[in-house]
Amino acid sequence: LDGSQLLDEVALLSAGRARTQAGTLFAIRDRLGAPGLVTLDRDEIVDGHIGRFYRLTPEGGIVLNAATPLRSGSTVKGARRVLRGQNA
Amino acid sequence: VNSYRFLLNVYPPGVRRAELLDTLTAGGRTRPTSREVANLLRFGMRARLGRPASRGIVVIAILFTFATAFAMAAVTERVGWQAVPAFPAGARLAAIEETVYPGSPHVAQRYISGGGLYDDNGTPDHWDVLVGGHNEDYTYASLNLLAGENSFLPGDDQRWISAAQKRIADAGWKVRWAGDYGGNPGDGVRAFATRGDVSLEIDTATNMVGTPAGAFGVTTTLRRVPPLWLSLLAWAGALVGAPIGWLLTGWASRRTEHGRPGVRRALRIMVSVALAGVAPQSIGGLQDLAAETSRIDPPDRPFWAATLAGGWSITQCAMLLSLVCLLIAARSPRRPEAFVTVQPESQP
User: Fold this and answer.
1) Do residues B249 and B67 make contact, with C-beta atoms less than 8 angstroms apart?
2) Predicted TM-score (pTM) of this structure
3) Which of A23, A42, B165, B228 is deepest in the core (most CB within 10 A)?
4) If you measure CA to CA, which chain B residue comes closest to A43?
5) Residue-wise pLDDT tens digits, A22-45
6) Are strands B139-147 and B215-224 parallel, antiparallel or unpaired?
7) Is A2 helix (H, G, I), strand (E, B) or coil?
């Protein structure tokens, strides 16, 4: 997912309860990138613009797996779904 | 799109601006909503500080922002004082004297302590002030009016000052406070009043050396009160100074965030010492400026007096440490921006 798709996905996963703004998304990316939990994967043309794609590093995957049980039920389900897709 | 582009200048230069622009305009939007503006301002300012996982850097930036806001407010107000009218003189001064000391005895002495804008209990030159700061009694200059023979008047000071209060109130002065002061026998009574941008303080005493029997000493002091426009000018200076502190902190933080651990530890210590020195003075000074702006209790000294008097050596030390930190930051090698290049898949 690129940035704008990710924002839509967050809204979808939380059933519309969480509406993340772009500034917040990039702040999270910076926070996860600093300790190496996410990294740049590729640049790709999406709908006529360059989409930048990031991926979890193995360390990031471990941290996310450890963190998901702390979240509320519906968010956990959403996050697990994303993780399953990523590991497929 | 141009409004997005303009707004994204709040972020530090780099590819992130272009990435954000792509994300923000992906749905065909061209103008930011108010929620987006607030969000981008908040996180853009935070991104300026670097060290995304650190909360300490935000605290440091806030405190330095107070320091530069305070410094710029002080400089602005000091420059603005040049345009403040001089003490009343001529017929205006004579009218004030006649109100306070009607008829005989006449005003025996007039003198301005400090000679200019400020009274430093002496007249140190610029070099003395630069090295040692001002005297602790640093206040606005005052025009002192002494009445009668050696400032003594015959009669009862309580009765005289009650009548004086009525006279000055009739002349348009607002009496803000009146009563005993000092706490020692014979310290006398004080009345404090303002009219426009001038304050008037009348002090009596019966315990002065050489007070004749049945008489009391009296001193009247005029001071210029900072006009409201001057206080507002100082706040405008603070608004200019505040982002300077934030941006300088951010620049130095980003330059040093990947530095050697020893250098980062040294920087942390120097910044902590500098902030411990200047942050309380800056916050206290801005509180004094707020009090000055409220015009509830006209101050007798500028809001930066504490910093230039007792706090000057601490301020000098803090400025020196801050300068060293900025020099270290300037000499730190530039690091490539995070996320610029595609990383190879790491092997599990």
Assistant:
1) no
2) 0.84
3) A23
4) B342
5) 999 999 989 988 888 988 888 887
6) antiparallel
7) coil
Question: In the structure encoding, which two tokens stand for residue B114, read together?
Answer: 């400090």
Give alpha helix (H) positions in chain B.
2-7, 15-25, 34-48, 56-80, 90-100, 126-132, 157-170, 228-256, 261-294, 305-308, 312-331
The residues, any chain, with a CB within 8 Å of residue B249's CB and separated by 6 or more, are B49, B57, B60, B61, B64, B65
How close does chain B come to A42, measured CA to CA in Å?
6
| A76 — pLDDT class (breaks 50, 70, 90) | low
Tell me whether A48 touches chain B (CB under 8 Å): no
Helix A22-33 with B34-48: angle, nearest 10 deg:
20
Rounded to 10 degrees, the C-alpha dihedral A73/A74/A75/A78 comes to 120
Query: Nearest residue of A to residue B46 by CA position?
Result: A27
B36 touches chain A (CB under 8 A): yes
Interchain CB contacts (distance < 8 Å): A and B = 81
CA dihedral defined by A69, A75, A78, A81, rounded to 10 degrees?
0
pLDDT, one tens digit per residue, over B210-269 is: 888 888 888 899 999 999 999 999 999 999 999 999 999 999 999 999 889 999 999 999
Those residues with Cβ within 8 angstroms of residue B165's Cβ, 6 or more apart along the chain or in another chain: B175, B178, B191, B193
Residue of B44, B341, B348 lying closest to A23 (CB–CB): B44
**Residues of chain B with C-beta less than 8 angstroms from the C-beta of A23:** 20, 36, 39-40, 42-44
Q: Cβ contact (<8 Å) for A3 and B19?
A: yes
Mean pLDDT, each 10-residue run in order, chain B (348 residues): 91 89 83 93 96 94 97 96 89 90 67 73 74 84 80 86 94 91 78 93 87 87 93 98 97 92 94 94 96 90 90 93 96 77 51
Is the CB of residue B13 less than 8 Å from the CB of residue B216? no
Question: Which among A33, A39, A52 has CB closest to B19?
Answer: A52
- ipTM of this complex: 0.75
Q: Euclidean distance between the first and final Cα of chain A, in Å?
A: 15
Across the interface, whether the CB atoms of A29 and B342 are under 8 A apart is answered: no
B281 contacts B306 by C-beta, under 8 angstroms = yes
Residues of A with CB below 8 A from B39's CB? 21-24
Which residue blocks in B149-260 are alpha helix, DSSP H?
157-170, 228-256
